[in-house]
């Protein structure tokens, strides 16, 4: 569980850095059903979530700007971090509807489905990762997810290769120190096999 939270935190941090990097398109929602999804996401909360200040702040911002895809992505990130995968998926899907095709959002959807499936690379997860990497071959969250999965499967060489690829990309979304530590840990574990 502790390792799972670490991986969730690592992915959430990487994705959180990315969320602020893209601009919302501002496209108006064209279907009444989208409004119903929005309302449901804002009302269907557990008591613990209702007490969370960050969640309340996000809810207020979304009520003021319901067409802001960045806010919906932040809400998805919040739900992912709290392991509320159903609502995380809905929030990211709403962000995708508002923003349109976007590599980071496909990577976020893959991440939610990966953890919802008990850390399994299902066909749907792989499909979203493929879409993300097709749009951006160095999409940080998608590569981080693949590396974390490789690490969990004890495929240390693949994990190291993916992490090194992220380092070589020189992306501002990458925490270089954490990646270097992860690479060193994977190298150590690979020698023990």
UniProtKB/TrEMBL annotation:
Coiled-coil ranges from the UniProt annotation: none
GO cellular component terms listed in the entry, alphabetical order: plasma membrane
TPR repeats by residue range: 69-102
Pfam family, one: TPR_CcmH_CycH
Gene3D superfamilies with a match to the protein in the record: Tetratricopeptide repeat domain
Keywords: Repeat, TPR repeat
Record flagged with keyword Repeat: yes
Cytochrome c-type biogenesis protein H TPR domain location: 36-168
InterPro entries the UniProt entry points to: C-type_cytochrome_biogenesis, TPR-like_helical_dom_sf, TPR_CcmH_CycH, TPR_rpt
The name this protein goes by in its record: Nitrite reductase
Species of origin: Chania multitudinisentens RB-25
